[in-house]
Amino acid sequence: MTRAxxxxxxxxxxxxxxxxxxxxxxxxxxxxxxxxxxxxxxxxLTNGTMRVPLPAVLGHEGAGTVTEVGDAVTHLAPGDRVVxxxxxxxxxxxxxxxxxxxxxxxxxxxxxxxxxxxTDDGTDLHPGLNVAAFAxxxxxxxxxxxxxxxxIPLTDAALLGCAVLTGYGAVHxxxxxxxxxxxxxxxxxxxxxxxxxxxxxxxxxxxxxxxVSQEKEELARRAGATDYLVASDTTAKDVRRLTGxxxxxxxxxxxxxxxxxxxxxxxxxRGGRTTVVGIGxxxxxxxxxxxxxxxxxxxxSGCVYGNSDPARDLPVLAEHIRAGRLDLASMVTERIxxxxxxxxxxxxxxxxxxxxLVVF
Length: 360
Hints:
alpha/beta; 7-stranded mixed β-sheet; 6-stranded parallel β-sheet
């Protein structure tokens, strides 16, 4: 038996219960989790903003140790330290053929599978975003795991599976921040903190952090923010004031709200670049008029999983970590057990803290 946090339907509380995992199929592996990050995407799955088959075990940012492998798995063995990859590429769809593996058409097909059952009544369970990390153990497709970088504790490495890949990729792959540029990051949660650190690594000359909470200023500055603003109706003007009147070269939006996206766009200079990382609902409509699009010459782009290729980017991130340029532990403001996830969701909604980490 394995303890897990199960969601049965949207807008219902997570239920902590025992589940029964099967023996790994030929192309699967069983993993004992060391840690799992609580991501805003998990919250979006509970409230119906994003949809996956339910009932399910959520959690998609994690790391652990392989305990068992299927007969056809030859590149992994019990004892291997691994990071979960919730969006594995198929390698054959149109996006993958273009090298855009983060847009793989088949990345989430595994979320529709039945991967486990509740022990008490045998209810079929789906693996959330493929990997079901809100559990002491999980069984996943072998393609959903990557080697954990040497010399990095698994509890830290868990953050590489989503927050860090997304924040780093948003800065380096989507926005393509250049040395000396000014960057403004909206939302100082797990992804936002990773984006701030990544902007510093990219050599940004000025990094402005924006959040609804004054309490996050210290977190933001430790990550590398040179300036901090509490979000208000004048945020775009305040960013322009801090950046010589022109606006930032780059804005990274990690909130997913229409008003914040619009503000991020307005806070960039003429010809500036805005990358939207936050996931908003269908009701969040962003409006622009045709004249301002022409006049400002700005770019607004979406960003999925940081436009990252985990197999390519994890080794790069590992070098930054070992060199002391990227600090994973500083992103974690709360270490909890499985039963602490609902409270972590509440803190997220209230704009409190950085990343909450479930430690097993």
